[in-house]
C-alpha cells in the first residue's frame, strides 16, 4: 500500500505550489534509487518543517502580522501532515504487533 508515499508526494507538491520549496531537493523527492532511510528521514524533516510553518503563521497572526488566509492554509497543511504522521505510526505499530504475534 503506497498511501503514505502518495500523501507525502502530494504534500510536497502543495508546498512547491505555495513557494515554500527549498533550494536543495529533499530526500522525499530524491531519485528512485535512493534508499528507504533517506526517504524516511526526508519525509520526517518535511513534516517537521510543515508543522513549524503552521506554528509560525499562527503566532504571526496573533501579533497581527499575517494574512488570515495564509494562516488557515499553513495550519491546514500542518494538520494534514500530523494526520499522515499518525496514520504511518499506527501502520508501523500494527505491523510490529503482527510480526511479534507470528509463531516461530
| Fraction of residues in H or I helices | over 70%
Low-confidence runs of at least 5 consecutive residues:
20-24
Total DSSP E strands: 0
In angstroms, what separates the terminal alpha carbons?
Answer: 26 Å
| Range of strand content | under 5%
Largest sheet: none
- Which structural class matches the secondary elements? mainly alpha
Report mean pLDDT, rounded to a whole number.
80
The dominant shape is elongated
Total of helices: 3
String of helices and strands: HHH
Cα radius of gyration in angstroms: 16 Å
How are the SSEs placed, and which strands pair?
Elements: H1 3-17, H2 36-62, H3 68-100
Brief digest:
The protein is mainly α. The protein is 72% helix and 0% strand. It has helices at residues 3-17, 36-62, 68-100.
Keyphrases for this structure?
single chain; 104 residues; mainly alpha; 3 helices; 0% strand
Describe the structure.
The protein has 104 residues and is mainly alpha-helical. It is 72% helix and 0% strand. α1 runs antiparallel to α3 and α2 runs antiparallel to α3. It is elongated and about 60 Å long.
Amino acid at each position: 500500500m503506497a498511501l503514505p508515499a502518495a500523501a507525502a508526494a502530494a504534500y510536497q507538491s502543495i508546498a512547491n505550489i505555495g513557494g515554500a520549496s527549498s533550494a536543495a531537493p529533499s530526500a522525499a523527492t530524491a531519485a528512485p534509487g535512493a534508499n528507504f532511510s533517506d526517504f524516511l528521514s526526508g519525509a520526517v524533516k518535511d513534516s517537521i518543517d510543515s508543522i513549524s510553518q503552521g506554528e509560525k503563521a499562527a503566532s504571526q497572526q496573533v501579533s497581527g502580522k499575517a494574512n488570515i488566509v495564509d494562516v488557515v492554509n499553513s495550519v491546514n497543511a500542518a494538520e494534514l501532515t500530523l494526520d499522515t504522521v499518525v496514520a504511518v505510526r499506527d501502520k508501523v505499530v500494527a505491523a510490529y504487533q503482527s510480526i511479534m504475534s507470528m509463531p516461530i
